[in-house]
Amino acid sequence: MAGFRSLARQVRDQRCDLALRRYSLRKCLERFAPYGHRATWDHLCSRAGFGPEDRSPDPARLVAALEELEEARSVWLAYEVEFAERRKKEKHDGLRRPGTVDDWHRLTWGGFGVAWCDDPRVHPHEPLAEVLRRLISALEREPGSECPVCRGGRLIWMYDLAHEPSSGPVCTECGIVVPRPVLTPEALAEARRGRRMLVSA
Question: For the segment 100-133, what is each residue's pLDDT rounded down to a tens digit?
């Protein structure tokens, strides 16, 4: 099975058939897709300027989409290295029990679904790397009451999400499932209340 870097080389390889280059970019999303496969694909296509169903996009646009994905992946991999080093130090210091950030992180190892968007057409508009930087910053500071990506304050608790955890606070503005560790207990409770109001309306 080809890894991310070998697939990226195929996307750039001008000797490859255009269909293979497009297919290789799609396959990259099996290795790294911050919003989930479909939402990340929709995001890359819209930012690079070709349609999700376009079977023969401009090769330069394919490479632009790949470059955005690679930059975001490097941001996430650097975070994972720091995370692993921190956990190693904590274990050395006797802190064996992982916290809520660690529980969330286990579900997103490798970068798949770190900013899950259950609706593939609703996702942040900013570059992927910027979204991940904002998310990482939120994970490294005290919990807040708003979406760490778009600063939206309207969070609604949703159930039956197509990702683990299967329920959680969803930002109604940018569409991400906000990681629980970045929100205060009050913000989580407010999101649940918002869900009840939505159901009863």
Answer: 677 777 777 778 899 999 999 999 999 999 999 9
Distances (CA, A) of 192 to 60, 122, 147, 185, 201: 44, 21, 15, 11, 14
Q: What are phi and psi of 71, to 5 degrees?
A: -60, -45
**3 state SS of 164:** coil
Longest CA–CA span in the chain (Å) reads 58
H-state helical runs in the chain: 4-12, 18-28, 37-48, 59-92, 100-107, 128-139, 185-200
CA end-to-end span of the chain, whole Å?
49
**Cα 141 vs. chain centroid, distance in angstroms?**
19
Q: What is the pLDDT of residues 18-69, one digit of tens each?
A: 999 999 999 999 999 999 999 999 999 999 999 999 989 999 999 999 999 9
Contact 127, 133 (CB under 8 A): no
Contact 132, 74 (CB under 8 A): no
State the Cα–Cα distance between residues 47 and 65, nearest whole angstrom: 7
Angle at 157 between CA 153 and CA 162, to 5 degrees: 120
Strand, coil or helix: what is 144? strand
